[in-house]
Design goal:
This protein is α+β, with helices and mostly antiparallel strands. It folds into 4 domains: 184 residues; 121 residues, Beta-Lactamase, CATH 3.30.450.40; 75 residues, Helix Hairpins (Orthogonal Bundle), CATH 1.10.287; 142 residues, Histidine kinase-like ATPase, C-terminal domain (Heat Shock Protein 90, 2-Layer Sandwich), CATH 3.30.565.10. Strand 1 and strand 2 form a beta hairpin. The longest helix has 74 residues.
């Protein structure tokens, strides 16, 4: 098929408008030429009228005898004849020559020859009648010449009017034709496109532009038809695509819901059994499995212990409570690098010897539970039908297993952390018992032996002295026990340590009978709860040393919060010489204070002068407090200034 010749809209409009433009240009040129001729004819009429005036002036000069101006007048008259004969483009001045005009001009030239001879006759003055008749005839012929020119000008004027009328008609006709062509070539195609667009907007995707031209609007129409066809095709498949996208979004939503469910389970599970039971219930629902088994592996990955099961027969759960590697496909052939496996139970041969086959399961999905490079166990999903998880399902199941591995590791680490904390507290308790009550009991043991010896010897004075020592030792041990109980019951009060310090000083006053004073200065970052506990223990140990050794009457506790936390316990007691190394043997509390401070990264400094009291200063570095500062309470955040 021969391709259709393309012709642009501009070419079509030019093709229609060019003839009218050319005709208008020709009419305008003709009008200008006729106007030019009319201007020349009008100038010729004026010049002929001037000749008539010159003839009258020459006749008047002859009749009055004033012949001095005759030569000049004659010369001017001849000049006028010459201008009329040859024309003057500068004015412009053109005589519209035709046969009549030429005839009258010839008569005027003949009359001028006779009139010029008459000017030279000496007796012309005595014949006034002859001069008058000659002048009248001469002027009459000039008038006839002017009338001939005016007649010719009238014809040119008629032609000019005809050209102007023609030009106006061409303008009107051209405007009408251009309007029609514009309607045909521009407005109508635009209207078709507009109506087709309105149909598309109304949902009618069958709308097309039927009349397609060969210009730009034709290209637009073809493009619109192609676009409409594409939209129609897209609309036909839109429902299927929407359903497909909806299914994808629903799948992603289910995956997110599954991850959220397992994440919530991981966050709230407090024991391995709770975690395992909750996980098998969740993954059975998520994977739509008929049965689930969660197995924990020992460190050598040789034994697999079933932590939890869901949907499996009781005899199968009991028989496979603990399996060894290689006993069956569960727990066999997986390493830290192995991914999800699909084991077709129906393809393993005779399934009657296998409990899973006897239970009617056809497929087994094996998901390793691993943390980094360490294999921690596996999750086995049993299906009565043959199954093959998609890539998205594989990714989801492996992600859930990864969450389970992280949760199991967190439980293990939390248990180890609690065990370490308990061990540390037991070690601290044992050391404090050894440094306080154990020494007092050893002292009492010695005094009991001395009491036996005194009773055996019957010395009443020695018995009284030993009994006094035993009584002092018992009272000392009783005070130590009460102090230890107070230490063990110490708790923090959220972010405010001032309340805890006040409570400690009140208990100290009741126990020792000494007056205690608390002074807080500055505003600093709050202390973390673990730091508060250690600070309270150190302060209590310092107060215990005051009670035991200082023989003071008052105690002061000064707390400074900026630029760093500083706790100073000072008394007005007897004091001691800090340069005496033997002090450490008798003041066990000083060593305990320093050890506690070292564990939290703080420092304790003891300043004492014999007879002037003692000061124990605990300083917490600013970076230590900032690094372990607790998060502000919600009420603090809500009322914080913007």
């Amino acid at each position: 098929m021969t391709p259709r010749k393309q012709r642009s809209l501009a070419a079509k409009l030019a093709l229609v408008g060019t003839p009218f433009l050319l005709l208008a240009l020709l009419a305008t040129a003709a009008t200008l030429w006729v106007s030019w001729q009319l201007d020349g004819g009008a100038a010729a009429v004026n010049e002929a009228g001037r000749m008539r005036m010159q003839a009258y002036r020459m006749s008047l000069s002859l009749s009055t005898g004033q012949t001095g101006e005759l030569p000049q007048l004659a010369q001017e008259f001849e000049g006028s004849l010459s201008v009329l004969r040859h024309g003057d483009p500068e004015r412009p001045l053109f005589v519209p020559w035709d046969e009549t005009v030429q005839q009258y001009f010839g008569v005027i030239e003949q009359d001028w020859e006779g009139f010029r001879q008459l000017l030279g006759a000496p007796d012309i003055v005595g014949r006034p009648q002859l001069l008058r008749d000659l002048t009248i005839d001469f002027v009459t012929h000039i008038d006839a010449f002017v009338h001939a020119i005016e007649t010719h000008i009238s014809r040119w004027t008629a032609i000019l009017h005809l050209l102007q009328t023609t030009l106006m008609a061409l303008v009107i006709l051209g405007a009408v034709v251009m309007l029609y062509v514009g309607q045909l070539l521009v407005l109508e195609p635009v209207g078709l496109l507009k109506r087709a667009i309105e149909k598309i907007q109304g949902g009618d995707f069958d709308a097309r532009v039927d009349r397609v031209s060969s210009d730009e609007f034709g290209t637009l129409a073809e493009g619109f038809n192609d676009m409409a066809a594409h939209l129609q095709s897209m609309y036909r498949h839109l429902e299927a695509k929407v359903a497909e996208k909806t299914a994808e979004l629903e799948e992603k939503r289910e995956r997110l819901a599954s991850l959220y469910e397992v994440t919530a389970l991981v966050a709230h599970a407090t024991s391995l059994d709770e975690l395992a039971q909750g996980f098998v219930r969740a993954i059975q629902r998520i994977a739509h499995a008929d049965g689930v088994a969660l197995r924990w592996s020992d460190q050598s990955n040789q034994r697999y212990l079933m932590l939890a099961a869901q949907g499996l027969p009781a005899e199968m759960v009991e028989a496979e409570h603990c399996i060894h590697k290689g006993d069956c496909h569960c727990g066999a052939g997986i390493t830290a690098e192995t991914g999800l496996r699909v084991i077709p139970i129906h393809a393993l041969g005779d399934t009657r010897d296998r409990l899973c086959g006897q239970a009617g399961y056809e497929s087994l999905v094996n998901i390793p539970v691993r943390l980094h490079e360490r294999l921690m166990g596996e999750v086995d999903l049993f299906f009565h039908a043959r199954t093959e998880p998609s890539e998205a399902e594989r990714s989801l199941l492996e992600a859930l297993a990864s969450h389970l591995a992280g949760a199991m590791e967190n439980l293990r680490l939390n248990a180890l952390e609690k065990e370490a904390a308990v061990s540390q507290e037991r070690h601290l308790l044992a050391r404090e018992l050894h440094d306080s009550i154990a020494q007092s009991l050893a002292f009492l043991k010695i005094q009991v032996q001395l009491m036996r010896d005194a009773l055996a010897s019957g010395e009443a004075k020695q018995i009284a002295q030993v009994l006094e020592e035993i009584d002092a030792g018992v009272r000392e041990s009783y005070g130590d026990v009460r102090e230890l109980l107070m230490h063990f019951r110490t708790r923090t009060n959220t972010e405010d340590i001032e309340t805890a310090l006040t409570t400690t000083l009140n208990k100290f006053e009741l126990q020792s009978g000494l007056k205690a004073h608390l002074q807080m200065q500055g505003q600093g970052l709050p202390l973390a709860p673990d730091l508060q506990i250690q600070v309270l223990h150190i302060v209590q140990e310092a107060l215990s040393n005051v009670r035991k050794h200082a023989r003071a009457s008052q105690v002061w506790l000064d707390v400074q919060q900026q630029p760093e936390w500083r706790f100073e316990v000072r008394d007005d007691g007897s004091g001691f010489d800090t340069r005496d190394d033997s002090i450490d043997d008798s003041h066990v509390g000083l060593r305990i204070m320093r050890e506690r401070a070292e564990r939290i990264g703080a420092r304790v400094e003891v300043i004492s002068t014999p007879g002037r009291g003692t000061s124990a200063v605990l300083t917490l570095p600013a970076q230590l407090v900032a690094a372990r500062a607790p998060a502000p309470a919600p009420s603090v955040l809500e009322h914080a200034p913007n």
